[in-house]
Amino acid sequence: MAAATLKIAVIPGDGIGTEVMPYGVRCLQAAAQAFGLALHFETFDFASCVFYQEHGEMLPLDWKDTLLKFDAIYFGAVGMPALVPDHVSLWGGLLKFRREFDQYINLRPCRLMPGVRCPLAGRQPGDIDFWVVRENTEGEYSSIGGKIFEGTDRETVIQETVMTRTGVDRVLRYAFELAQRRPRKHLTSATKSNGISITMPYWDERVREMASNYPDVAVDKYHIDILTAHFVQKPDVHVIFDVVVGSNLFGDILSDLGPACTGTIGIAPSGNINPDKKFPSLFEPVHGSAPDIAGKGIANPVGMIVSNSVISFEEDKSVWAGQMMLQHFGFHDAAGAMLQAIERVLARGEAEVLTADMGGKGTTKALGEAIESEILSFK
Length: 379
Ligand code: ATP
Ligand code: MG
Description:
D-malate dehydrogenase (decarboxylating); binds adenosine-5'-triphosphate; alpha/beta; 40% helix; ICDH/IPMDH; Isopropylmalate Dehydrogenase; ten-stranded mixed sheet; two-stranded antiparallel sheet
């Protein structure tokens, strides 16, 4: 049977997003060559501040119909804070994708890679290996609220947290299923039910009920304050973390802190997933547009490249199995090879190849091309 073609919408965005994206695409193309996959790429300029400056909007009117024709969205980064306020560029583009395409899972692996200096003393590759699962569509990130008595000394602002049973249950179910498939079968729930007295006890209650469906998964709950302390003090595999699930806000914080504990934000990938496959999922690096280093050609491209391998997890979990699409592509092998290629290049530790955030003096080009040729060696 002829292999179906995986259609990927490429959105480089702003800043270093446009610098790392070419290497993300080239590495995917290399994997496609090495493993005989059929990939089709189409690049779009919207959801960027450059587009906003020209059109006064982050997205064209028909963006949804345009992107619905794709299987996945490959996204660089957005933001040019000197020209467009961050809340405008974020809410006008990327966050619309997340909400309109119901990408209710934000998945971020935290893994210590060989050759990367860990900011926590004494850790070796393999010591840190866990996933943060963040609720991505509701919770604390609602725009319900307002300001009253403005300009007086009674000025008051209110912003509501929204948790629905459907919204909470679906992220918990996803996290439990992920934990169940991992060898350690452990789930940590982030909460703050001592201080936030309505929504967080509800979250805990849903965790308790969901846990009864997964008797083989061990469950811990931690308040977010001590949980962040544990991330820094003892994130090691043999101590606690395996799958960590949190609300939109707590998950956001943990999913930046987690990768930071594994060396540099520059290597961390992120998947915004619609597990129901009704809409395309979006894969991106965790980092933003990094205006401070944009234009210098020194951004680390690994987060962009490795975000492809998040797709392989999806295949594992048969999330895409409806069309058996990735089986046609043999994506699992290709994604595994990509990760191995990255690890080999990083482990060599060549200063000319590693970027500055990893202690080297290499360029985006040097590191991107080294990984690309390593992937091609699988051919
Ligand atoms: P956002 O709000 O979009 O997440 P941000 O302002 O929080 O963006 P980043 O743009 O990710 O943060 O940048 C944070 C810091 O990390 C900056 O100093 C930036 O230079 C550095 N950084 C981010 N990504 C990379 C990368 N790929 N390579 C090297 N350094 C990076
Ligand atoms: Mg950030």
